[in-house]
Amino acid sequence: MTENAYILGFVLASEHRKKVMMALQDKPSTPSVISEKTKIYPSHISNTLSKLVEKKLVVCLTPKLKKGRLYELTANGKNILKNL
Fold it and tell me: pTM of this prediction?
């Protein structure tokens, strides 16, 4: 199994991961905006973003901020999103 197939399976296994990645497809966004777009609780958004950052599908553009962090899809994240 290729690495991309494994990552695609990882994303497809969770409705939250799919929705968060789709919410980030157009432009960088904050967790609260993602929460509003997807109707997912903010705590779930934070957990989901952490997992997506671990897999290098999403990157935090403003890691030093405590509030208002901006996240966006990485090149690999955009690639995986095309296959969803």
Answer: 0.92
